[in-house]
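Narrative summary of target 7.
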Amino acid sequence: MAELNWTWRGWWARPSQLAPEGDWRHWLYIGGRGAGKTRAGAEWVREQVKAGSGRITMIAPTAGDARDVMVEGESGLLSVCWSSDKTNLGAPLGRPTYEPSKRRVSWSNGAVATLFSAEEPERLRGPQADAMWADELAAWKNAQSTWDMAMFGLRLGTDPRAIVTTTPKPVPLVRSLMKDSRSVMTRGSTYDNSANLAAPFLEAIRERYEGTRLGRQEIDAELLDDVPGALWTVDMIDAAKHPVGEAQRVIVAVDPSGADGDPESGADEIGIIVAAKMMDGTFAILEDATCNLSPEGWGRRSVERYHAHSASMIVAERNFGGDMVGGVIRAADRNAKFKLVTASRGKAVRAEPIAALYEQGRVAHSEGLERLEGQMLQMTLTGFVGEGSPDRLDAAVWALSELASTNNNTWEGTI
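Modeled conformation, tokenized:
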């Protein structure tokens, strides 16, 4: 994969100056916060429309991100287009029209950009495109499945291409694309675009983050694979990605929180993980059904996964909410078998024996577990170093501990 150095020359730099030349399939713009990633993506989409692209796919982590950042944001698509714009052949193009209800941006020449959310990869099954903009790929919930569906649809024209604009995080898909021979990569740090950023912002991030690990990732756009002292490494997680066999016992584990059902509330999510012990004695994580729903909502979702996977039990932590947790599950299905467990030790201590199973190559991962894997990479011997609570990881630890307890009674009851 080719790598280019790129420094912004002001907001009015044109994509013909910025897009790499040559024969490539994916252009990865790996940039720090405020480095100009969104502007690069928007300018590139506009240039594709001017050159004749008729169908563009635009994907963000959420539907709100697609609207607020990719389209209506200060550096979004509408900000780089104007009423007197023309195609490369001189035909009138104009400023596009955004129709939120239809999730699309359309131009007068018939070109259409359709918005998608990585939360719903199945919506990408069917639509075709000759260009694609994938924004903040490292933050996608269903990164691999969303990317796969999008690439199946990137098939129109003679040279369909994609731009990926993202802050670097050590998720498998980002690392895979960086190694792909069909990719070219451009790096940009926050400081490269300092002429267009507020001086107080630059001063604040220098003072607080410069020289730190987080600063290297979020400012300098470095891809940092392994956190020092982490219980899980990238290699351990990569080794877990292989087909799972036949299950002999399935568990649904729940890590409750104080969420009230409002995704904007900032409360931690309710971790819901489905795991299994296989016929050969190994283990597998089958699904991440983590959500931010009311007690009624997460109780219903837990029971739905219980029945969908023919699970033998729901395991839930009782520390947060006490007997309320059991009441929520009983309200969703009074016949569902469940067990309440109590956390008597810290998260890192509870996670250590589970990480050991991964070191032994005894755990497999299904697809769509990128957020869980991201939390694993941030759990260290001294605790969780990521943002918020490791809700998904806590639920995975409960599930695998219960499954392993059939052969190790020391994990029964409280852990």
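The radius of gyration is 23 Å.
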